[in-house]
Amino acid sequence: MMNFEEKKKMLLAKKQYDTADLVVLLQVLRDPENGCPWDRIQTHHTIRNDFIEETYEAIEAIDTDNPVLLREELGDVLLQVAFHAGIEEDAGRFDFEDVVDALCKKLIYRHPHVFGNEAVTDADDVLVTWNRQKNLEKTERVTVTDQLNAVPKMLPALVRAAKVGKRASCFDFPDASSVMDKLREESAEVEDAVRSGDEEQIFEEIGDLLLTVTSLARKLHVNPEEALYRATDKFIARFEKIENEVLAMGKVPSELPVSALDAIWDSVKQKEKSTENIIKNTEADHET
How far is 212 from 161, CA to CA, in rounded Å? Predict the structure, then answer.
């Protein structure tokens, strides 16, 4: 086994690194005597939020279709995995190789249609097989409630609601139309709560309304998290156009009444629709 200096020398001599080198690098950084003062005192909890932030940054790189940034951000996510595994290795419980070993075994077991003789017809069938194999891994009987509780509470609320709704498929709306009826019902209950002035009831009814929206999204095969993400981006882009028009008047948005801003907003939307129609007509002309 290499000592601290030997590990450093080995790392400095290399021109191309792999995951095994990453593990050694973290061992050097977390060396109790000669390592980095910051790295060696970190715990699972002190770098917990870093894991969340790095994951979101990787997602942003995916959404912006930036492969250079994605490579960097995936490296940062991998660092978090290796760092947490290193903490566990120091505690003598497991190491990075154990993580990879368990992952590979799980993937092989959950793909009997690839590594065994089971047949599947399509991607949906694969998901059924995956969930069945996953449940077989449990030593005790798994109830639907167990599956609902297994959805991590730390997930974004829309993501968690969508996953819970999907797992509770035995107690679901028959179609999108029935969800729309429920949506109108929940909207009316929000209005009743607002009229009552009961803040707790308003809070509860807004939650019910949002949960119903995720059910509608599921029935329409829409990812609610991505839909809201895109809608928020669209709002920001439109607001920028509004603000630019207001600034051209020599004012700032806060100096205009809401009615004036609404009028500009409607004008911006109309211009966007006109542009979209021109693009569609141009594409249609090219096709003919």
Answer: 9
